[in-house]
Amino acid sequence: MTERRTVLIRYDEIGLKGRNRKFFEKCLLKNIKRVVSGIDDIHYRSPRGRIFLDIPSSFAAECSAQLKTVPGIASFSIGVSMNPDFDAIAALGIQWIEPKLESADSLKFCVKTRRSKKSFPKTSPEVNFEVGSRIMSELSQKGLKVNITEAEYVLEIEIGSSETVVFDNREPGLAGLPVGSSGNVLCLLSGGIDSPVAAFMMACRGCRVHFVFFDNQPFLGRGGYDKVLSLAKKINRFQSRGTLYVVPFEELQGAIRDHCNEENRVVLYRRMMYRIAEEIANRQSYMGLITGESLGQVASQTLENLAAVSCVTSLSVFRPLIGMNKESIITKAKEIGTYDVSIEPQPDCCSIFMPKNPVTRSKIPFLERDEGKFPWEELRDNALTRMEIIKVDDL
Ligand code: ATP
Ligand code: MG
Predict the structure, then answer these.
(1) Would you call 166 helix, strand, or coil by DSSP?
(2) Does the pLDDT of residue 117 top 90, yes or no?
(3) Contact indicator for 185, 289 with CB cutoff of 8 Å
(4) How confident is residue 347, by pLDDT bands cut at 50, 70 and 90?
(5) For 66-110, what is each residue's pLDDT tens digit?
(6) Arch. (CATH architecture) of 183-394
(7) Could you tell me the pTM of the whole model?
(8) CA distance 4 to 349
(9) Interval between CA 214 and ligand 2 midpoint (Å)
(10) Ligand 1, pocket-test mutation among 185, 189, 190, most atoms within 8 A of CB
(11) Which one of 72, 121, 127, 132 is most buried, counting C-beta atoms within 10 A?
């Protein structure tokens, strides 16, 4: 028989959801099943408050790597399911601890029990004592010491109503809420550092994130397009089923360059992006827009300029990075694996035809006057007709 492992998955805020709890749990289980679908011979159990995966031990490393991509998991442990028999649990503990004593003079350890099966005849401290003392009688001569506050090795026992799991590891998950539990949103995804991080943060709040990229290949080449494909794919790993919309933007940018006040250009580009994104969102019933804007980071992201772009849409605009500095955004981008793609050199579409002095406090009537100088509705509809639609799962 192949050796089996039990993965004990703890979830994050779902526990707070009262009567919606079942719905959140179902969402999470579905997302977990998707990431481990490549593992053969896997069984699922979901007793109250936990999800258990029963897997062949040869898949433990792969399973662990996959679970780290699932929003909604607080932490998980890989251990062994067994009868709550103190001798058997102690024997397993000894088997795990003994090799560690070979390379060290001493080791501080403790046993920690969590018991949700209240009918179990012993309390948690009693179980700790029963198992701990059995292990000590075997290993104290080899340098094992009990130390509850400074343990270097913790043997954990979780006695649930249907199953007892023994483990010695805890891996952190992404936390947050399971994707699909909140709804669909559309992220304005450039090839830069910020917007992929913004998309990731909303995925961790339970959103399925779709992407729109405003492309200016005639002026900027294919590099931006390729970067965005690769970034969308990286974010989609945390959720699946994202769609990427690529909107040709050169006509609109050309018109703004030729007809409008130079200093207003960037804000005018952004207003057109928001309008087009809104149209896509409305067609697909997406419930909000996401951008990577952070207050004051660049001239186009002052309070005045953010207000001047938000006001063209009635959709909610989510800016999860609004209060973050660049350094912490970069740290996050590195963690989620998008940073290396984002820093590949590629001019971004807002920096071409960049005015020498972009306006920092734009006035909406002046922007509207500029927009009266070219047929933006027609150009918007044109761009939408020529838009490319890509299923990110297929990339
Ligand atoms: P990023 O690193 O995300 O590009 P940034 O700091 O470079 O952000 P801007 O270039 O001012 O900031 O863009 C602000 C936001 O506008 C971006 O985070 C993104 O959401 C959106 N955006 C900018 N350019 C594009 C584009 N070509 N396609 C789609 N969205 C864009
Ligand atoms: Mg940018």
Answers:
(1) strand
(2) no
(3) yes
(4) low
(5) 999 999 999 999 999 999 999 999 999 999 999 999 988 899 999
(6) 3-Layer(aba) Sandwich (3.40)
(7) 0.94
(8) 53
(9) 11
(10) 190
(11) 72
* Boundaries of every domain in the chain: 4-172, 183-394
Q: Which CATH number fits domain 4-172: 3.10.400.10, 3.30.2130.30, 3.20.20.70, 6.20.20.10?
A: 3.30.2130.30
Is the pLDDT at 228 greater than 60? The verdict is yes
Distances in whole angstroms, Cα of residue 4 to Cα of each of 80, 98, 129, 156, 203:
7, 21, 27, 18, 32
The pLDDT tens digits for 256-285 are 999 999 999 999 999 999 999 999 999 999
DSSP bridge pairs for 41: none
Cα of 37 vs its chain's centroid, Å:
19
Query: Is residue 276 in contact with ligand 1, taking CB distance under 6 Å?
Result: no
Of the residues 186, 210, 350, 359, which should be mutated to test ligand 1's pocket, given the most ligand atoms within 8 Å of the CB? 350
> Which atom from ligand 1 is nearest to the alpha carbon of 224?
27
Does residue 213's CB lie within 6 angstroms of at least one atom of ligand 1?
yes
Query: Whose CA is closest to 205, among 185, 176, 242, 240?
Result: 176
- Greatest CA separation for the chain: 87
Q: Is 194 in the pocket of ligand 1 (CB under 6 A)?
A: yes
Alpha helical stretches, state H, 204-264: 217-220, 223-236, 250-259
Best CA proximity match to 135, nearest among 158, 108, 159, 102: 108
Residue 195 C-alpha to ligand 1 middle, in angstroms? 6
Q: What is the pLDDT of residue 130?
A: 98
pLDDT of residue 355: 81
